[in-house]
Design a protein that fits this description.
The chain has eleven helices and 20 strands. It is of the alpha/beta class.
Length: 554
């Protein structure tokens, strides 16, 4: 009898234990909600993890929503399980990337040397289901371009235009402007991209309009009025000066042409003969030294660069190579605009023999013509193609349109204002350029994903313009050669980012189950280690994006 009673009690205890497990699994998630700022994906008790999860500094347990609160929707048992499975998979992907970094660095980089921050949420529902270190303010690299363009769209609107004014400080009569021609800066990047003749075409329209106003000769000076825009210069904590000639360091300014970038196309010819060389904008105002030679070897040794005096395109190109294209920065974007505009005046037959002066805030004068460029036209170059100087132009122009100053400080204030309007906390955010090139920029994965959720929300009128500007996995922009096979192809719309020691991917993932996600992945690792982004962190980004596309319950 005693033995039977003991067996009964043991059975009873086991049954109670099983019921408690069922209660915990099926009913407990229905009684709790996710407190804003806490994770519903706490690690399982006893789970080992080398990741530092900023959202789990407390116990990591779910928090009961106060009675009558408007907390996020209650989670079903199924969704809670699928969310835990998603997080477990992402943690495994991150751990594999850390092992990859350790292996590829021969042990110089350890797991604790790497910070990986992730935030993912279901678009439209507000559910924050994946949070790893997501409140840490980290360098976003070119991911900062998402903040730049979102702020511009929020504050200025998708129909906003850059405006460059051409004013007459004197009477136009008898075919002449009896006074100065003033060009008033509007921050227009005047970006040509792959359209080599676009700068000339745009400025030819201006010159033609001036002719139609009766200007065949300018008898005063050409005054380039920078207004509230700062003089061009590198940003704080940019790469060293030895890189300033490269395209990614092109300077932004109130007046510029092709966003301060020179582009060249070198075409091979007969053996031993000079290659055919095109540079645009063609009228760059610098001495030209074009010496590239066609050789028999299959070699691409074309060397380009520009100094304060000279543009150089030299080296060798193999005959079988055919065509080589390259881009590099002009040392002075305002001077580049000046030379391009003077060439347009000459092509239109407008005579000018005065001086060119760069000034600020010249007194109002008679408007002859306004050159307009749409903000929307800059979005793809910035977010899909990652054109740094175009992003910086947008950043400065947003600051000027919002606060009257085309400066880095005003651009940063404009960003903070836009985030406030979107309901995104700005704590820890620091933005000193529009491109993300500066190592002084900071943003958290949570801020980035929350920003994306606000801009890409179904009720936001800027949604289409913003989404259409993003690179598409396996299809376009900086993602053209990534995620080219598998479920993510054509279903991840995102912005890549990299500077030495920093890697990021943030954007939108269309789930195969019909659930769309916004996400942000930010990584910081030792700056001195080359190759880790290519071999470890890019694959990690892609694997996480693939996992989001597969769906939380996969």
């Amino acid at each position: 009898m005693v033995a039977r009673e003991r067996r009964f009690k043991a059975t009873e205890a086991a049954l109670i234990g099983a019921l408690l497990v069922v209660f915990a699994t099926l009913l407990f998630p229905l009684l709790v909600g996710e407190e804003r700022g806490a994770s519903v994906l706490a690690s399982e008790p006893g789970q080992a993890s080398t990741l530092r999860e900023s959202t789990l500094h407390a116990s990591g347990e779910p928090t009961v929503a106060p009675a009558g609160s408007s907390a996020l929707p209650l989670l079903s048992a199924t969704s809670a399980r699928s969310d835990r499975e998603l997080k477990a998979d992402v943690l495994a992907i991150i751990e594999e990337a850390k092992r990859c970094a350790q292996s590829n660095s021969d042990g110089r980089v350890q797991s604790d040397d790497i910070i990986v921050a992730v935030h993912a949420r279901k678009l439209g529902s507000g559910d924050m289901v994946l949070r790893i270190e997501d409140d840490l303010a980290l360098r976003p690299a070119s991911g900062m371009k998402l903040v730049t363009t979102a702020a511009a769209l929020v504050l200025l609107g998708s129909d906003w235009h850059f405006e460059t004014g051409f004013d007459a400080a004197g009477e136009v009569s008898g075919g002449a402007l009896h006074g100065d021609l003033i060009v008033r800066a509007g921050g227009d990047p005047l970006y040509a991209g792959d359209e080599s003749q676009l700068v000339d075409v745009r400025l030819d329209r201006v010159a033609t309009a001036l002719r139609l106003k009766g200007v065949e000769e300018i008898r005063g000076n050409l005054l380039l009025d920078l207004g509230g825009f700062d003089y061009p210069g590198p940003g704080p904590e940019w790469p060293p000066a030895s890189q300033y000639w490269q395209e990614h360091c092109a300077l932004a300014a109130g007046l510029t042409a092709n966003a301060g970038v020179l582009a060249t196309r070198v075409t091979s010819t007969s053996l031993g003969q000079p290659a055919t060389i095109e540079v645009w904008p063609a009228h760059h105002g610098l001495e030209s030294r074009y010496t590239t030679v066609t050789v028999a070897e299959k070699v691409n040794d074309v060397r380009v660069g520009a100094t304060a005096k000279r543009v150089t395109v030299g080296g060798k190109i193999g005959q079988s190579i055919g065509v080589v294209e390259a881009s590099f920065s002009h040392p002075d974007p305002v001077a580049l605009f000046e030379s391009s505009f003077l060439a347009a005046l000459s092509r239109a037959g407008i005579r000018f023999s005065g001086e060119v002066r760069v000034l600020r805030n010249i007194a109002p004068a008679q408007r002859l013509y306004t050159m307009r460029s749409s903000l929307r036209s800059t979005l793809i170059p910035v977010n899909s193609d990652s054109a740094n100087s175009v992003a910086d132009q947008v950043f400065l122009a947003t600051g000027r349109a919002t606060f009257g100053r085309g400066s880095r400080e005003a651009g940063g204030l404009a960003t903070a204002k836009a985030l406030e309007q979107l309901g995104v906390p700005a704590d820890g955010l620091a933005q000193v350029d529009g491109s993300g090139l500066s190592r002084a920029n900071r943003v958290s994965a949570r801020q980035m994903a929350t920003l994306l959720a606000a801009v890409l929300g179904p009720e936001n009128p800027m949604r289409s313009a913003f989404r259409d500007s993003l690179a598409i996995a396996g299809v376009s922009g900086t993602l053209e050669n990534r995620m080219r096979s598998g479920a993510a192809t054509g279903h991840v719309f995102a912005k890549t980012g990299w500077i030495s020691g920093t890697s990021s991917l943030s954007g939108l993932a269309e789930g195969a189950d019909g659930v769309n996600w916004v996400f942000s992945i930010l990584v910081e690792y030792p700056q001195a280690e080359a190759g880790l982004n290519k071999y470890c962190f890019k694959p990690m980004h892609d694997a996480i994006a693939e996992r989001l596309v597969a769906g939380a319950g996969s």
